[in-house]
Each structure stands twice: as structure tokens, then as C-alpha cells.
Design goal:
CATH topology: Growth Hormone, Chain: A
Shape: globular
CATH class: Mainly Alpha
Order of helices and strands: HHHHHHHHHHHHHHHHH
Structural class: mainly alpha
Strand content: under 5%
Radius of gyration: 20 Å
């Protein structure tokens, strides 16, 4: 069979895969959602974890930041592994590790062991978003990826909307350890679904993808690419603003503003509705307005939302609505930025989509984890530190967009 025949077989394979696009998008959405599910289900239990282990706020929040750190570190690994061996085997290995680490978290005796367990859980979970985005790029191409990622993001928003509500009920009825039973079940279901439903989509496997010179060369070429770094850093700062709220929301809403753990999830769902609205808007208008314009609009809206949140935290009444409303606007802006910036960053690199997705994910989660650590260490019993960190990240987003994306476009 000659090269032309091989290409034809591969093209037919991808056509057949795209014909099953509804089922594929559902599976990919669940893969990408594993990160939000793993953090947001657990949020209502953070104060209870702090009390159970006699820990402080910073230590309890470190169970979130350790997850994000492991998530980001492994994103650098999973992409090149999948470029070499394919998406399917790497995904199966990652989900198996995630399920085993969830069992470990269930039985930990100390806060330090829980931090370790969350790190190990993240090592497995990181395969989902990295390879989910890479599979989208494999199947749908650059422009199609932006549309599919936008609709995936809006559907994925159902997970972080529902997860804190479920987590609040689990915490109230069964205690914080029940969260990890639920996560173990989610991981096991994903493992079975991937095994049964996902074929291999990487039709450009690189035998030298793990060679040190190739890894370093790919990394340096991406780091030197102005537009890749512009999209990636814009996306990272937008995500860091979002994660600053995720990291501090339980302490601010439950401990400071008096929201009951069982009601916390409903406040969080209202916020996530903003993200869903932004993602749906991006999916509807990206092809008409273009990636860059949607990112710019989202970046400016996020900065405005951060400013409003900070003003209300300093001068407004101490009420949950003064947090939920501006953060809903912030999440709407993130829904505009993330899918478009992700498609813009990965789209030009079909031969190393896994590596590009890895570096993007590493920087995104690394900056988000740092913002979460700051939120924990600066917590002073008010909403002000969280709001100020969100504002700083939200303002950095349009600045990065202007310096690296808009200026580069004007110079073309």
C-alpha cells in the first residue's frame, strides 16, 4: 500500500470519527472536565478538611494548589508521550492512575498525606485536558477546533456548576471523604468509556518526540513564537483570575459571608452560568468576528469585572451578591477567552499539537496555582485579598493581549 493510499485510509478514518461527533464531543468534554470536577466537587469541604486535620487556611488551600501544580507539571509530559505513542494508550494510563490516587485520598490520616494524594491525583488527571484538546485538533483542524472547543466549554460548564452542589450535599450528609468516593467512581467510568469508545486519532506519530533534542527544540520553538506565547499567557492570566476565586471562594462565601455549605454550590452555579454564557457566545460568534477580536473583548470585560469586584469588596456591603455578580461577569469573560486562545495557540502546530497543548497547560495551571497560593497566604478574614488578586490577574490579561497579540497582528 503506497503513501497516497495510507493518507486516504487515514482521511476516511477521521471522516468516520467526525460522523460520530456528538458522542465524541461528549467524551472529550468529560475528559477536559476532569480538572474542574476534581477541584470544584471538593470546594464545600475545604473548611471541614481544615477542621478535621486541625490545619490552617493556607494548608487546606494547598490541597487545591498541589493539585494544580501536579496538573501543570504533567501537562509537559503527556503531550510528547501522546505525540510518540498515540493519544489512546496515554489516556488509559493516566485515568488508571487518577482512579488509584482517588482511593489513596480516601484513606489519608494527615493533611500532608492528603496534599500528596491530591498531587498524585493530578498527575493522572492532567491527561484529560491535554489530550482532549489534542484529539480535537486531530479531528477538527484549527478553525473547527475553536468552534468545537467553545461548545465543549459551554457543556463542560455544567460540571463545575453541578459539582459544588453535589459536593455540598455529600459534605452535609456523609462528610468530606465521600468526595473521593465520587471522584473514584468518575475516574473509573472515564477509564471504561475511553477503553470502549475512543479510537486512536494521532495520525502523525513522531518516533523521536521523546528525544531530548526534539523535546528541547519543540519547547524553544514554542517559547520563541510570539503569537503562541501571546495566546498562552493571555489565557493563563484569565484562568488565574478564575482560579483565584475557586481557591478562595469557600472561605469567603462560607466563613466570611455566612453561606451554608449546602447552599455554596448554588452560588457557585450562578457564577459558572456566566462561564457557560461566555462559552456559548464564543461558539456562536467566533467564526463571524474572529479569534483575536473575541479574545480582546473577553480580556477587557474581565478587567472591568475584577475592578467592580474589588470596589465592592472594599467599599460595598458584606453580602454574597457583591461577590457572585461581578465574578459571574468575570467567568463570562473567561468563557470568551479560553477556548479561542487555546485554539489560537495550538492550531498552527499540527505536527506537535500534543507538545503545544502541554506547554499551554503547564503555563496556565502554573500561573493559576501561584495565584491560588497567594489567595491562601494573604487571606485575612475578608474578601479583599481574593478580590485584589483577581483584579491583578484580570488586568494582566488585556495587557498581554495588547503587547503580544494585537501588536503582532498590526505589524503583519
Amino acid at each position: 500500500m503506497g503513501p497516497a493510499c495510507i493518507v486516504t485510509v487515514r482521511e476516511r478514518h477521521l471522516v468516520r470519527l467526525e460522523m460520530k461527533s456528538k458522542g465524541l464531543v461528549v467524551l472529550l468534554t468529560a475528559m477536559v472536565a476532569i480538572g474542574p470536577v476534581s477541584t470544584d466537587l471538593y470546594l464545600p469541604s475545604l473548611p471541614a478538611v481544615m477542621r478535621a486535620f486541625n490545619a490552617d487556611v493556607a494548608s487546606a488551600q494547598l490541597t487545591l494548589s498541589a493539585f494544580m501544580a501536579g496538573f501543570g507539571m504533567m501537562m509537559l509530559v503527556y503531550g510528547p508521550l501522546s505525540d510518540r505513542f498515540g493519544r489512546r494508550p496515554v489516556l488509559l494510563a493516566g485515568m488508571l492512575l487518577y482512579s488509584l490516587a482517588s482511593i489513596f485520598c480516601l484513606f489519608v490520616p494527615t493533611i500532608d498525606m492528603l496534599i500528596l494524594g491530591r498531587f498524585l491525583q493530578a498527575v493522572g488527571a492532567a491527561c484529560g485536558p491535554v489530550l482532549g484538546r489534542a484529539v480535537v485538533r486531530d479531528v477538527y483542524g484549527r478553525e473547527g477546533s475553536a468552534r468545537v472547543l467553545s461548545y465543549m466549554a459551554s457543556a463542560m460548564a455544567l460540571a463545575p456548576a453541578a459539582a459544588p452542589i453535589l459536593g455540598g450535599f455529600l459534605e452535609t450528609w456523609f462528610g468530606w471523604r465521600s468526595n473521593f468516593i465520587a471522584l473514584m467512581g468518575f475516574g473509573s467510568a472515564m477509564l471504561l468509556a475511553l477503553f470502549a469508545l475512543l479510537p486512536e486519532t494521532n495520525q502523525h506519530r513522531d518516533p523521536e518526540a521523546l528525544a531530548p533534542y526534539r523535546l528541547l527544540g519543540n519547547l524553544l520553538s514554542l517559547l520563541k513564537n510570539r503569537r503562541f506565547m501571546g495566546y498562552t499567557l493571555t489565557m493563563s492570566f484569565s484562568f488565574a483570575a478564575l482560579f483565584s476565586f475557586i481557591s478562595g471562594s469557600a472561605f469567603v462565601l462560607i466563613d466570611v459571608l455566612g453561606v451554608a455549605p449546602g447552599n455554596f454550590g448554588f452560588c457557585f452555579a450562578a457564577v459558572v452560568a456566566g462561564y457557560m454564557g461566555g462559552s456559548l457566545t464564543a461558539g456562536r460568534f467566533t467564526l463571524r468576528l474572529g479569534l483575536d477580536r473575541m479574545i480582546g473583548l473577553g480580556a477587557l470585560l474581565g478587567a472591568g469585572a475584577g475592578l467592580l469586584l474589588t470596589a465592592l469588596a472594599i467599599w460595598g456591603p458584606a453580602h454574597w451578591a457583591g461577590v457572585v455578580f461581578p465574578v459571574s461577569l468575570l467567568f463570562f469573560s473567561v468563557g470568551l477567552v479560553l477556548p479561542n486562545a487555546s485554539a489560537g495557540a495550538i492550531g498552527p502546530f499540527p505536527q506537535m499539537a500534543g507538545a503545544a497543548s502541554s506547554l499551554l497547560g503547564f503555563l496556565q495551571t502554573g500561573i493559576g496555582a501561584l495565584a491560588g497560593v497567594l489567595a491562601g497566604h494573604l487571606h485575612n478574614g475578608t474578601a479583599v485579598p481574593m478580590a485584589v488578586i483577581i483584579l491583578a490577574m484580570a488586568v494582566a490579561c488585556p495587557l498581554t493581549y495588547g503587547l503580544l497579540i494585537a501588536r503582532d497582528r498590526s505589524n503583519r
